[in-house]
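User: Could you check the structure of this?
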Amino acid sequence: MLTLSVEAFAQATAGEVLTGDSDVMINGVAIDSRETEPGAAFFAFGGENVDGHAFCLEALAAGARALVVTRSPAELAHVIEAASARKAAVIRVDDTTRALQDLASAHRARLFCPVVGVTGSAGKTTTKEFLVAVLGTRDKVVATKGNRNNEIGVPLTVLDAGADTDVLVVEMAMRGAGQIAELAEIARPTVGLVTNVGVSHIELLGSQEAIAAAKAELIEAIPEQGTVFLNGDDAYTDVIAERSCAPVLRYGLSEACDIRAEDVTVDADSCAHFTLVLPSDRVRVSLGVPGRHNVYNALATAAVAANLGIEPAGIARGLVSARAGDMRMQSFTSASGVHVINDAYNASPTSMRAAVDTLAEMTAASRTIAVLGDMAELGSLTELAHFQLGEHVSRAGVSTLVTVGERAKRIADGAVAEGMDAAAVRPCVTVEEAGAVLDDLLEPGDVVLVKASRVMGLERVVEGIVEPRV
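Assistant: Sure, the predicted structure tokens are below.
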């Protein structure tokens, strides 16, 4: 965790101390007054809907030792007076986002632990969670919390690390070219991992080649003495590998990969089991998260963990206990006996197909029901991608398809065109309509998958299954 004097804090952020003792120590940072810990610095971010300056007094009441603001002293006279009374500092900066990033960069220079940067079109969050589980069998790990993987989240993650941190794992997302490079400049990773290159964000970047180039920004940031890990079965790996000045190790299913899986099987709950083949050893691995596609996330994790000195037995032990995170292949059985796979956090064509395959492989189910919503940011591929997903649903042999949203109607069209019984396809426009359909449809023993892009809010469908309408 960050520990700096007010004076050093102000220097790192190019800030002006409006009030407060320069020798007072600041411990940690916060961007939400409700999550401000005693001794922390509260950053008052401005916004269209919420202005953090309105919560400065609440942050002080929570024990904030410093407030980072952008407004003038005249506008904040009451805040400065309250801070002075509590012997807290008020530091004025030109831009709170830039100040947070500069502070994280200064803090990163004081860290000596390995820093693992993770990005990719799909699987990066699950892989991050797997890394935490595996590395945590030996090390103290600090990692990205939730979806804090952007220009604000990455600095916060770096600032969470301290002198006692053994490994820092930083997930990096992007919505355009140059963004991962900016995040890497803050985190300065020593290990780089790209899970794959898909078509997520193609609406913004225009092509898969442009997406690959954007993901490669992480690899370009890895120093010569670091290590790069790439999915050896991904079509863009060779292109990305050329951008690396560090050694490149590949993981995957093909024999050419440095770290690979052999003898992959899937049980009745769709959890994968395989033999992990490392350069100098092999070990049998079982996953506790459903989905054959999670073998790749496990291999990525194993490759990084082995490079950082985790023994094969520790890798296997960590992977069996690893989970994917909130609304990511979360599996549970409702009180009514319906088995739910909640994968509603986000979606792309690749992750949608993988989730459908996971559902189809759950052989213990009475019926398999896919609730699939719109996929966002696909640009000119929108119509085709949804239609092809529907075709895949039909070929996978899913019992019933419920679609949610205007774009998702094309999923229904594709399923019927591929031969799925039209009576087993239920197109819905809204979440509420889908909930009503499921209330009538679901029976004990059914397995239902819920997945869509985040904007659809399909977690409300899951909530309806847990608490059916009266």
